[in-house]
């Protein structure tokens, strides 16, 4: 029991510190702001379960991996009567 009391705070601090110190995800921008930016590529997702917010979050994660700080969502939809989301976004510095 004493080991658990000591280990538990260490485990929680490791979990929370990674969330606190994580880099912010790329910011969403509109098409008028995108026109003045330099594109570094595009990202896409498909088969994302959940809501449109979940699909946007996946796009932001991919944009971050590409090195982007901003992204403009070009398309976001659920094809047919599917509950799975797909989307495309342009990534900017």
From TrEMBL:
InterPro entries: Dodecin-like, YdgH-like_sf, YdgH/BhsA/McbA-like_dom. Keywords: Signal. Residues 39-93 form the YdgH/BhsA/McbA-like domain. It comes from the Bacteria. The keyword Transmembrane helix does not apply. The keyword Signal applies. Pfam families: YdgH_BhsA-like. Residues 1-22 form the signal peptide. This is Biofilm stress and motility protein A.
């Amino acid at each position: 029991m004493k080991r658990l009391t000591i280990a538990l705070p260490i485990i929680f601090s490791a979990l929370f510190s990674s969330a606190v110190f994580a880099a912010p995800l790329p910011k969403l921008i509109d098409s008028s702001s995108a026109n003045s930016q330099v594109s570094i590529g595009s990202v896409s997702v498909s088969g994302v379960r959940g809501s449109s917010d979940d699909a946007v979050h996946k796009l932001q994660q991919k944009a971050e991996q590409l090195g982007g700080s901003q992204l403009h969502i070009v398309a976001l939809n659920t094809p047919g009567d599917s509950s799975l989301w797909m989307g495309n976004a342009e990534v900017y510095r």
